[in-house]
Amino acid sequence: MSSDSLSSAEEDVENEQSVGLLSNVMEARAEHLKTRNYRSLYSFTTALGIGALVMILSWLIRYRKGFAWNWDPELQFNWHPLLMTTGLLFLYAQSILIYRTGRNASKKRLKIFHAVLHASAFVLAVIGLKAVFDSHNYASPPKPNLYSLHSWFGLVTVIMFTGQVTVALLPPEITLKYFLYPGLSRSLRQAVLPVHTVTGIATFTLALIAALTGITEKTIWT
Amino acid sequence: MSSDSLSSAEEDVENEQSVGLLSNVMEARAEHLKTRNYRSLYSFTTALGIGALVMILSWLIRYRKGFAWNWDPELQFNWHPLLMTTGLLFLYAQSILIYRTGRNASKKRLKIFHAVLHASAFVLAVIGLKAVFDSHNYASPPKPNLYSLHSWFGLVTVIMFTGQVTVALLPPEITLKYFLYPGLSRSLRQAVLPVHTVTGIATFTLALIAALTGITEKTIWT
């Protein structure tokens, strides 16, 4: 390469730098607007979510006689809609959005939040499932399990959710090294991420369908 | 710019061309694989869709006593699940996918197919809605309309779908010039397209939820 072409290359770099500076300013503005839009949308949908949970809670307390455990199967059932929607819709949604909501926090902290929110959702879902199976099995006469569209959508949802949690947790030494903490296998994490997010959003959609078919069932049956 | 830097620019262009050739071959291979994957997935989901329609049809004929119009409101209802799922799920899905399914056809032809499939879905939906309202109003005693979760999800779906069709059709001279045929306002079409696709997919998801809550209602009520 001749020195002439080098100097012209330097000119190009200078031009690029001034263009780059302008485009940086424009990008920062665009980023700022996108963040502000996200915050408005996030606040709005989270308020809707809390509103839905409050309405479910007041429905169960005021119109469905509140809560109990397996000494009263009819009231034990009431834990089911409350815990499933709190876990597999509200906490699940918050957990999915955490990387965007807390975009200025460290990646490691966000991953821990994501894991804690998902683990809480999982625990609520397990108690919620126990509640519905108990409420069928301890009823007199006992009610059959898993014969409706809702129950199968719900079962598939829980199996897929458990699968995602299992992949994240087992074996723990690999998870801690490779997924939860920034470890060696960047390529592995890069390959798994899109599968994890697509499966996660599909599972969330299934949870939404399960909730709406479930509420439809309950409003007709009572 | 000096002539030396020009010749170095020519060299760059040559290098880019040979790199470009290689990347063209790789891109063509990747495209081919993606197309083949799409075709498999499309065939599989379309077969599932036809299977679902056949199951709905045999359910309505064998277990729900078949079809009639408003001289027999109970059988008139049966048009509702058949026409809504055929129109707002099967044809709607085919119409959304047409640009990918027929990717080698001309854009103009695909737009006409998209319009015809969506128009057919709209006509089936209108007849399906007439069927359900008639089946309530002509029943003795008449049944109330629009008091369930399903009915309101369905209503919102149909309103959003009608909105999309209306935007595409009114005023017709503008549509024909600017949307259906390649016309002058490329920038307008570019601005509308992402809104149209996101709204369309949201409406499709609502149609799916409406169908599943509707089937849940019908299996409990009969």
N- to C-terminal distance of chain A? 83 Å
Give the averaged pLDDT of chain A, no decimals. 87
Beta-strand residue percentage of chain A: under 5%
Query: Can you tell me the number of structural domains of chain A?
Result: 2
Sketch the major β-sheet of chain A. none
SSE string of chain A, helices as H and strands as E: HHHHHHH
Helix-residue proportion of chain A: over 70%
Number of strands of chain A: 0
Q: What is the CATH class name of the largest domain in chain A?
A: Mainly Alpha
Q: From the coordinates shown, what is the CATH architecture of the largest domain in chain A?
A: Up-down Bundle
What would you say this structure looks like, in words?
Chains A, B: Its cofactor is heme b. The structure is a homodimer of 222-residue chains. Chain A is built from 7 helices and no strands. With 222 residues, chain A is mainly α. The first copy, chain A, folds into 2 domains: 1-45; 64-221, Four Helix Bundle (Hemerythrin (Met), subunit A), CATH 1.20.120.1770. The N and C termini of chain A lie far apart (83 Å). Chains A and B meet through helix 1, helix 5 and helix 7 of A and helix 1, helix 5 and helix 7 of B.
Q: Keyphrases for this structure?
A:
homodimer, Cyt_b561/ferric_Rdtase_TM (chains A, B), electron transport (chains A, B), mainly alpha, oxidoreductase activity (chains A, B), metal ion binding (chains A, B), 222 residues, transmembrane (chains A, B), elongated, Four Helix Bundle (Hemerythrin (Met), subunit A)
